Amino acid sequence: MIHKQFVQTYTAIVGVTMLGLYLINILDISYPLHVSTSVTTSELSVVGEGKVDVTPDTAHVNVGIQVSNTPTAEGAQEQINTINNKIIDAMSSLGIKKEDIKTSNYSVFPGYSNDGRTISGYNGNATISIKIKKTELVSQVVTSATNAGANEIHGVSFSIDDPSKFREQARTKAIEDAKEQAEKLAKNLGIRLGKVVNIVEYQPSSPIPFEAKSMALDAYGGGGGPSIEPGTQTVTSTVTLYFEKR
């Protein structure tokens, strides 16, 4: 009896196996076989965004000094140094500290005549970068630097000296935005929200400094100088909140 049951079971297993191999061959099923399962998540994730508009509190002005056709290299260097010191003195009179004034790109080089071999004189240039912590002084800085001998204005840019506190404000707004959206979604889906189980903040964006284009010196002639406004910059935060679903 037991032997008969064993034979029947064995025959059934062999039959099913052969049938399976036949179907695999006919249907051209390749190995390995992948099985996908779908599991309903127990969390609801919502993205929120927060923005804060900020008026920049710091300005940066870059002015240039150019001298040309001086008889000697020492003469070109002396002219640059004289103008550089006058600009520093002019900035000091506006309350700008020396540590906020930086001279760079200093160079003196020969100029040549048309034959390309004979030195006709010496040229030189330098760039002075000025950090201004009172943005209302920008126009005066540009005018004073020009009057002191700067003959190039490379540009004016505005920035936020410490954006961290504004990022915190933007983050708070982003979290509130995500919570509001989650509540609306939960209501529409007919579910209840539990506690927040995770929060992910995307890399907060730093405000892009506003930069005015290089300006011609004749724009600064007369009057009290140009009106240069800092405008506003936007600090943004994006977060994803993960809520329990009940």
From TrEMBL:
The keyword Transmembrane applies. Keywords: Membrane, Transmembrane, Transmembrane helix. Pfam families: SIMPL (PF04402). The chain crosses the membrane at residues 12-33. GO terms for biological process: DNA damage response. This is 26 kDa periplasmic immunogenic protein. It comes from Candidatus Roizmanbacteria bacterium RIFCSPHIGHO2_02_FULL_37_24.
